[in-house]
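[step 3/7] fold_predict: job queued, chain A
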Amino acid sequence: MRRACTTAFVLLAVNAASTTYVIAEPSGADMVRQLKLSPELARTYIEGLSSGIDWTNTAISTMKKGSPLFCPPPNISITIEQVENILIRYLANKPSEAQYPVGFVMLKAFRDTFPCP
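[step 4/7] structure written:
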């Protein structure tokens, strides 16, 4: 019994000593603010986010043979400045969306900008 209590205590102590980091995704409003305060850092974040969304869209429409989430014109490359403008314009037209995580907002902005036929 004593050994079981000691083991339980050690496990609890180890668990309590371990650090857990929780990082929340910034909101659309947070990202627009960051674009003004620290544009290079914000653009890097948006570029990674945009790339992930674009690859997901490609995977859904090609590998899974599903309907794409959005349909940009074929054979064009969208610059980070254009992505930034898409996000800012979307939030200017739909300010109530600014409270949501920027990844969700970016997906909705792409769907709004590049609707599928």
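[step 5/7] annotate
The mean pLDDT is 84.
Residues 39-62 form the longest helix (24 residues).
exit 0
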